[in-house]
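sorry to bug you again but im stuck and you know this stuff better than me. theres a chain ive been looking at and ive put its sequence and its fold in token form underneath. id like you to explain what the token line says about the fold, in plain words if possible. anything you notice is useful, everything is just below.
___
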Amino acid sequence: MAQPLAITAADTEFCEATPEQRELAWKLNGAAWARPMSIETYVAQEFHLSEQELTKDGRCKYWVLHLTGYPRQVIASCETTRKKVLISENGVSREGYGYGIASVYTNPDYRRQGMAATLLRRVQEAMDRDSDLSVLYSDIGRQYYSNLGWHVVPRDELTLTYIAPASTSDNETPTLQHSQPGSIRYLRLEDLRTLCEVDELHLSARFDRIPADGARHVAFLPSFAQISWQVARAEFVAGKLLDGTPENVGAITSNGRAWIYWSHDWKRKKLKILKVVTVLESTQQQRIYDIRVLVEAALVEATTWGLGTVLLWNPDEETAMGCKAVGDVHPHDIDVVIDENVDHSISSLRWAGGKHKNTVWEDNYYYCWC
């Protein structure tokens, strides 16, 4: 491996990326992240995602550190998406803004010289001017971003893995059958906007009831813009790698009492539950049943498309019980595991100005990821 070109922060310039610099950054990080797509297709994906409701019209900003005097020589890059959040402190709730940070990447020619840290400190200054906080999801361990002010927020993960029958041949695609197909109906993208609005109202009412407990509570709004961005990502990849594109983006109980949203992760062969919603009045037993039939629907969707695992972030007690009930219904087909996440997409949060607070991140579910 060639030695990195020796530079210091004094040799660099920081700026919001021009369209040309943005594409150059995508081509650089695409060398690491594009597979199994080509870099050209990956760049098209990133452009497509930049034009979604969540990200268009300047809601997502792209940042670069480049060599002084050479704007095409991109050294490091990242993107930040500004989103609405709810904050509750001392028994008072309010709306605010938080940034999701993604695609932090350093050109291999300039690594191990603090260039990403230089970039991120400048990005912090920019974000702090118009937001309350920022979050990111680390795939390089806990320490690096913690040293820059993003504190790890522990998170559990629950997986339901389909165990194919021993008789299945290599040419067969095993699928799961729902035990009570009449208990749910599948959701299309056009169904989600109204459901997201109901979910936002429910979350806002919940924040109004949070008592003063010495902590600052925060949650990203589960908006249609956020959910549809996740769907758009999965649909784009499916359109490039598969013969068809899934129409189902979630499921709702036949009584309309609960629903879930999901996203297909083709690269990691997982169906990721973006959020489980139980907003209408019901008993605990009813909620557990609703979660069971919805998660079972997710498993059917996963096996239909050759995805072996369904993933949920931070399941509460009722969600965990509902998932375990799926395992009880399919005792020989489904393996249910709950573990703390320690090595990928590590949730990390920083308050504007670097002020450390006793923080409770409410609803830290996969819909927040970017």
